[in-house]
Specification:
Length: 207
């Protein structure tokens, strides 16, 4: 004869069995796929930042000293940078210790920028006309860049020589080059200051 179960078994009231609690399990496979889709989207849609560089023109070595004398000093302009931020001086043409006067200029819009715009007026106006034509879709982008480069490098465009002291601040040099680029001046070079110019600079600073 089969045993009769009382239904108690010592496991609870009236022989009811408690349901087993299963462990919660989340399938992360769709989440991984979604993460890769989002990552791919942001990589394709984001514009990567381009490294910012500044082109600085250095003069080439000239073995023949007479070649330096062939420069057209009517187009030459020199900017001398002292050791402090406010020590920015300018003189046109060829330097002569007895007659050349250094003109003090600051780095404001009414200072160095106004001077550069006045000296480069014709070239700057020509570049602005090209920019207007590009804006009005009269020029293709490649044509605009070619004509702008040709205009800035015109034989009659003024060129600037930036001369520095041994302890001239790097920031001051960058600020001056920024002003040259803003004023559409493409012909410039950074060189060391001459001994005679050092004498004139020290004389201006003391005064």
């Amino acid at each position: 004869m089969a045993d009769v179960s009382t239904g108690d078994d010592g496991g609870g009231k009236k022989g009811k069995k408690r349901p087993k609690k299963g462990t919660t399990r989340i399938d992360m496979t769709p989440m991984v796929d979604l993460a890769f889709l989002l990552l791919t989207f942001f990589i394709l849609a984001t514009t990567l930042s381009k490294p910012k560089t500044m082109e600085i023109v250095y003069p080439k070595d000239v073995k023949d000293p007479d070649e330096k004398m062939k420069l057209n000093f009517l187009l030459a302009n020199t900017i001398i940078l002292g050791e402090k931020d406010n020590q920015v001086f300018y003189y046109p043409g060829k330097f002569k210790l007895d007659t050349t006067q250094l003109e003090h200029v600051d780095l404001s819009k009414d200072g160095l920028r106004k001077l550069l715009l006045d000296k480069n007026k014709n070239i700057n106006e020509a570049v602005l006309k090209l920019e207007e034509q590009l804006k009005n879709h009269q020029l293709a982008d490649s044509t605009f860049k070619r004509l702008r480069s040709k205009t800035k490098g015109d034989d009659n465009a003024p060129f600037f020589i930036v001369k520095t002291m041994n302890k001239t601040k790097y920031k001051t040099v960058i600020d001056v080059i920024d002003e040259l680029n803003i004023c559409n001046i493409n012909k410039y070079a950074v060189v060391d200051i001459a001994d005679a110019e050092k004498i004139a600079l020290k004389r201006e600073i003391k005064e």
